[in-house]
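Need tokens for this chain, all 87 residues.
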Amino acid sequence: MGIVIGRFFTSNINYPSKHLENKVDAIIDHLGVDFKPYKNTPKEVLSALDSGERVKAIKIYRQFSGVSLREASEVISYLENNRTNVT
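Here are the structure tokens for all 87 residues:
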């Protein structure tokens, strides 16, 4: 029972932050700001991605930023799908 309740309450933890992120993105778009959050990504990370070495890119990004494995994986996924927003 505790697991079910815990799952119910933790499943919505990211909702407020995602909602806020969407609002900020809308403001940035409205103002026409050229915002590139991963502009300072180390070249080693981008080189690893170019070589198809996703795991290596995650490892390098984690060393560079100190983020968790999950956060690094999310960043690398973003970089893979939005490369034009990086450089």
